[in-house]
Design goal:
mainly alpha, 3 helices, single chain
């Protein structure tokens, strides 16, 4: 039996190699959908982080800067958001950030009982 052991080991390794190759080929069609799902999930997470940070920025700059020029508050809010997004590894566009600020501002003003004039900040 000891004389057959090297042959048995070689045969078992060949079978394991074949099964693994077959399994990897069967799993290959699932790789792209999994990557797409992961990309979509990351984007959702980034957008949730963006909304949370935008709400923080709007509340902070509305409370501390009050009647200051809207464009100055927008600039400061964008800087605050970019810093926050950098901490979570996100790289959303300037348009995405502006939209999040406008949405957060509208929600902030609604909570405060004011109008939602996005251009006046």
């Amino acid at each position: 039996m000891e004389q057959l052991q090297p042959y048995i080991n070689t045969l078992v390794l060949a079978i394991v190699g074949f099964v693994m190759t077959w399994a990897l080929r069967k799993l290959d069609p699932l790789v792209e959908p999994a990557k797409a799902w992961l990309r979509a999930r990351t984007t959702d997470t980034q957008r949730q982080a963006l909304q949370r940070i935008a709400a923080e920025a709007v509340a902070l700059f509305e409370a501390t800067l009050g009647s200051k020029q809207g464009q100055e508050k927008l600039r400061l809010a964008k800087a605050y958001i970019n810093k926050g997004l950098g901490a979570v590894g996100s790289d959303l566009s300037d348009a995405d950030i502006r939209a999040a600020v406008e949405k957060a501002l509208a929600e902030y003003k609604a909570k405060q009982g004011g109008g939602s004039d996005a251009g006046s900040h």
